[in-house]
């Protein structure tokens, strides 16, 4: 008995990308401006290469000026910072993204903080984190994954989440913490849980909204979830599955989709849920940055 609505992140992302493409065309026609996105990838992490390829492809299909810088694993920190300086000064570039994780000898914090906050379309600069935490969301670049999750939650529940309990599983700077800030700003009552939380299942059971961002395959089960809850699965886990008697590598989320679908009100699948929305929000942030740089409204 599957009762939950499947939230189709892929379709939502495609719809959003269409409107970004239309706005991009208008920006070029009316103001001669093309949003520019520079993606920096260091090393040969296979998952990062897939993400970067998808970002580049989406940027091009939205009509952006899209640039990729591929640096060797052994590149020095000075060379990375010099490239960021150049991109900060380049007027054709409105968004700069350094794909994480970085090789161990590079300092993630120094590198992400070197990006001009006005081009920080990933929302990792302390200025943007500070604005988000202070409730100045309209003035900040919000990290793409929680921004995409929020759009899906508000599509299901409306923009005002007053009286709703939200439980975020995971407290990372990239997903968990900014997700909690966004939910709080929409008036939800928010609990952030993590690896040291006692009785996680009991805490999740109180939630009208569950956002799982952990990295543990199929961790959230049916008996954790309140009937009717909206469940957003951020997790991306590579697992071996048996398909038609053959062992194949596939992706699964942090939520046991088939099991939780029996009780949730709405749920995102993996793949095809949060992932596509994340990439599209990156395009939305880059378009906004281009508009702001031209003195137009964001
Ligand atoms: P992270 O490793 O930085 O953080 C994981 C969090 O989970 C930590 O806060 C930790 O305390 C918590 N945690 C670990 N074990 C736990 C447990 N047993 N119970 C409760 N909490 C536990 O990871 P992240 O960067 O936040 O990413 C989380 C997941 O989301 C990963 O699978 C990642 O691949 C995925 N992700 C997906 C997208 C997307 O676009 N779909 C974007 C970013 C991350």
Would you kindly provide a written description of the structure presented here, covering whatever features stand out?
The protein is an alpha/beta fold and 298 residues long. The protein has 2 domains: 30-119, 3-Layer(aba) Sandwich (Rossmann fold), CATH 3.40.50.10860; 144-276, 3-Layer(aba) Sandwich (Rossmann fold), CATH 3.40.50. It is built from 10 helices and 11 strands. The protein has helices at residues 9-31, 46-61, 77-89, 108-114, 126-133, 144-157, 176-185, 200-204, 257-260, 274-293; strands at residues 5-6, 36-42, 65-71, 95-98, 165-169, 189-193, 209-212, 230-233, 237-243, 246-252, 266-267. A 6-stranded parallel β-sheet has the order 1-11-8-7-5-6. β9 (237-243) and β10 (246-252) form a beta hairpin. The longest helix has 23 residues, at 9-31. It is globular and about 55 Å long. The relative contact order is 0.17. The mean pLDDT is 96. Bound molecules: nicotinamide-adenine-dinucleotide. Nicotinamide-adenine-dinucleotide is lined by residues 145, 169-172, 174-176, 193-195, 197, 200, 213-216, 234-237, 274-275, 278.
Q: What's the alpha carbon Rg, rounded to whole Å?
A: 19 Å
CATH architecture of the largest domain: 3-Layer(aba) Sandwich
> Which stretches are poorly predicted, pLDDT < 50 over at least 5 residues?
none
Mean pLDDT: 96
State the domain count. Answer: 2
User: The CATH topology of the largest domain is what?
Assistant: Rossmann fold
What share of the residues does DSSP label as strand, in percent?
A: 15-25%
Gross geometry: globular
Q: Termini distance?
A: 45 Å
- Biggest β-sheet: count, sense, barrel? 6 strands, parallel
Looking at CATH, the homologous superfamily of the largest domain is NAD(P)-binding Rossmann-like Domain
Report the total helices.
10
The helix-and-strand class reads: alpha/beta
**How many β-strands, per DSSP?**
11
This entry's quaternary arrangement is single chain
Helix content: 40-55%
The helix-strand sequence is EHEHEHEHHHEHEHEEEEHEH
CATH class of the largest domain: Alpha Beta
Small-molecule binders here are: nicotinamide-adenine-dinucleotide
In which order are the strands of the major sheet placed? 1-11-8-7-5-6
């Amino acid at each position: 008995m599957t009762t939950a609505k499947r939230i189709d992140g892929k379709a939502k992302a495609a719809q959003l990308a269409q409107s970004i493409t239309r706005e991009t065309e208008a920006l070029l026609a009316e103001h001669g401006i093309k949003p520019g996105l520079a993606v920096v990838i260091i090393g040969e992490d296979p998952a990062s290469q897939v993400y970067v390829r998808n970002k580049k492809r989406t940027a091009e299909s939205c009509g952006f000026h899209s640039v990729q810088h591929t640096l060797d694993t052994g590149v020095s920190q000075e060379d990375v910072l010099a490239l960021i300086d150049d991109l900060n000064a380049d007027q054709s570039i409105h968004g700069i993204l350094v794909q994480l994780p970085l090789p161990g000898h590079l300092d993630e914090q120094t590198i992400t903080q070197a990006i001009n906050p006005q081009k920080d379309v990933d929302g990792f600069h302390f200025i943007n984190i500070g604005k988000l935490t202070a409730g100045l969301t309209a003035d900040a670049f919000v990290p793409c994954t929680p921004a995409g999750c929020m759009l899906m939650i508000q599509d299901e529940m409306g923009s005002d989440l007053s009286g709703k309990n939200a439980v975020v599983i995971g407290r990372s700077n990239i997903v968990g913490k900014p997700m909690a800030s966004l939910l709080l700003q929409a008036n939800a009552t928010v609990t952030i849980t993590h690896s040291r939380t006692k009785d996680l299942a009991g805490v999740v059971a109180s939630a009208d909204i569950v956002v799982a961002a952990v990295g543990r395959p199929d961790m959230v089960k049916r008996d954790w979830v309140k009937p009717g809850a909206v469940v957003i699965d951020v997790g991306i886990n590579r697992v071996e599955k048996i398909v038609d008697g053959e062992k194949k590598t596939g992706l699964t989320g942090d939520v046991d989709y088939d099991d939780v679908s029996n009780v949730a009100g709405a749920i995102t699948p993996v793949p095809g849920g949060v992932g596509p929305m994340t990439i599209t929000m990156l395009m939305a942030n880059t378009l906004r940055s281009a508009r702001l740089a031209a003195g137009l409204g964001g």
